[in-house]
Automatic annotation (TrEMBL):
Gene that this sequence comes from: ydiU
Organism listed in the record: Williamsia herbipolensis
Family stated for the protein in its record: Belongs to the SELO family.
Binding positions (Mg(2+)): 255, 264
Molecular functions per Gene Ontology: AMPylase activity; ATP binding; magnesium ion binding; manganese ion binding
Positions that bind ATP: 94, 96-97, 117, 129-130, 180, 187, 264
Protein name: Protein nucleotidyltransferase YdiU
EC number of this enzyme: 2.7.7.-, 2.7.7.108
Xref: InterPro entries: SelO
């Protein structure tokens, strides 16, 4: 996959999406930002991408990263997509406040989108102002980088740039643009849009296959196998969310990627007290996207993806090229879709086994621990670190979370199931169970200060959550849930 490259001193960008996928985007150049200033740069990611981190702090970078000035020669676009939002079909969504600057190709040939969120109103903006506020963009930065550090596939944050513009939310807020890097921005909603349009469907599928599953290019059954590959990646992804207590919050089909990366950090959060019904999003009144519903919801989104692929699979599966076999396509896609929950459950069982130090899943032991946790609602993240401490002979952390009588019978069974080498088991558990996650109250405190111009707490928190497994006695407060009296205003900046 090659295309002409636009070269600035900062970025060399290709544009295969714009070149190959007519009908899937509109040209768009960001709106003017009155006083763009780069606030944060992800040095590690910049280096990984072969970019010069220092150069990303310059005024030229601020112009580009705010969307104010396109990189010389770049073809910048707003991508079109549809989506099922809270179950309801929206035929036309698309990047209402975002643009694709282009694609970065690293030394290994890996292609990644460089995308701006908050860069102004596009044709898809509907009633929105096309903008984003500093708080939510820094929030996406923090949480996506925490996810990456946890080993969970995700879009990455390269930079946040203040625009110098005041935007209206509940109150006036400083505007900002997030520069996001992703292995692509193709969503289930992109396929729903392509299906509706008709012509772009096959080009989009072939493009996505070439980009994400090059081994399938040209295969006679590539669309069905592509579907299976996406089902598998999403099953693995959602199991990783469940294993760390992550709740995405807005699992609409336009926020479900084909790459298997987590995307769109809005009202997402990590669960504190264990409760499978936990929901953070204030608009999710029915609990559709609650913690425990995430696997079936992703399965539901993949059903929408399967529907979008029916014409392509029907043409490939049929013996007669002039007679697509829709029934056979539906049967084949349904068969693959039917494996989703089992794939997820197998991944999750392995994660939970590792979380409690077992080499193999033991569903009764895991279910029974969850039953105790449901009853006593201990801090989810803290419980697994406390179990490792228990193995080291330190019972205090667990006693602070769950009454001893309630957990003692389970602990006996657990000890009997564990390998002999308890110290080594505890160390192995600590390598998969984070001690530091972006705790809602700490994120809140850091973003409040950042919105007022003080980035120190943000930088500190970022440093802690990007080393999530390494306990440091000096960072005790970062491992604690919110105090009961944390009070009002909790869980803000989840908006837009
Ligand atoms: N302030 C806004 N102005 C214009 N469009 C918006 C705004 N906020 C959201 N939208 C659009 O509403 C739809 C749903 O928004 P959603 O919050 O899922 O996406 P997003 O956070 O803007 O972006 P992404 O999914 O790329 O992270 C998208 O089409 C998005 O572009
Ligand atoms: Mg979105």
């Amino acid at each position: 996959m090659t295309s002409s490259a636009a070269t600035s001193t900062l970025f060399t960008l290709e544009n295969t999406f714009a070149r190959d996928l007519e009908g899937m985007f509109v040209p768009f150049v960001g709106e003017h930002a009155p006083d763009p200033r780069v606030l944060v740069v992800n040095t590690d990611l910049a280096e990984e991408l072969g970019l010069d981190p220092e150069a990303l702090h310059t005024a030229e970078a601020a112009q580009i990263l705010s969307g104010s000035t396109p990189p010389p020669g770049a073809t910048t676009i707003a991508m079109a997509y549809s989506g099922h939002q809270f179950g309801g079909y929206q035929p036309l969504l698309g990047d209402g406040r975002a643009l694709l600057l282009g694609e970065l190709v690293d030394a290994e040939g890996a292609r990644r989108d460089l995308h701006l969120k908050g860069s102004g109103r596009t044709r898809f903006a509907r009633g929105g102002d096309g903008r984003a506020a500093i708080g939510p963009m820094l929030r996406e930065y923090l949480i996506s980088e925490a996810m990456h550090a946890l080993g969970i596939p995700t879009t990455r944050a390269l930079a946040v740039t203040a625009t110098g513009q005041t935007i209206m939310r509940d109150a006036p807020e400083p505007g900002a643009v997030l520069a996001r890097v992703a292995s692509s921005h193709i969503r289930v909603g992109s396929f729903e849009f392509a299906l509706r349009q008709g012509d772009p469907l096959q080009p989009l599928a072939d493009y996505a296959i070439a980009r994400h599953h090059p081994d399938l290019v040209g295969a006679d059954d590539r669309y069905l196998r592509f579907f299976e590959a996406v089902v598998d990646k999403q099953a693995a992804l959602v199991a990783q969310w469940m294993a760390v207590g992550f709740i995405h919050g807005v699992l609409n089909t336009d926020n479900t990627t084909i790459s298997g990366e987590t995307i769109d950090y809005g009202p997402c959060a990590f669960m504190d007290a264990y409760d499978p019904a936990t929901v953070f999003s204030s608009i999710d009144v029915q609990g559709r996207y609650a913690y425990t519903n995430q696997p079936p919801v992703i399965g539901w989104n993949l059903a929408r993806f399967a529907e979008s692929l029916i014409p392509l699979v029907a043409a490939q599966i049929s013996a007669d090229p002039d007679e697509p076999d829709t029934d056979a396509a539906i049967a084949a896609l349904t068969g693959v879709l039917g494996t989703f929950l089992d794939r997820h459950d197998a991944h999750l069982a392995r994660h939970f086994a590792a979380k409690i130090g077992l080499a193999e899943p033991d569903s009764a032991l895991i279910d029974d621990l969850q039953t105790v946790m449901r009853e006593h609602r201990p801090d989810f993240t803290g419980t697994f670190r406390a179990l490792a401490e228990e193995l080291r002979g330190n019972s205090r952390p667990l006693d602070d979370l769950i009454p001893r009588d309630a957990i003692a019978p389970w602990l006996d069974r657990w000890h009997a199931a564990l390998p002999e080498a308890e110290e080594a088991t505890a160390a192995a558990m600590d390598r998969v169970n984070p001690i530091y996650i972006p705790r809602n109250h700490l994120v809140d405190i850091a973003l409040r200060a950042a919105t007022e111009g003080d980035l120190e707490k943000f930088e500190m928190l970022l440093g802690v959550i990007t080393r999530p497994f390494d306990a440091d006695p000096a960072l005790g407060a970062y491992a604690q849930p919110a105090p009961d009296d944390f009070g009002e205003g909790f869980q803000t900046f989840c908006g837009t």
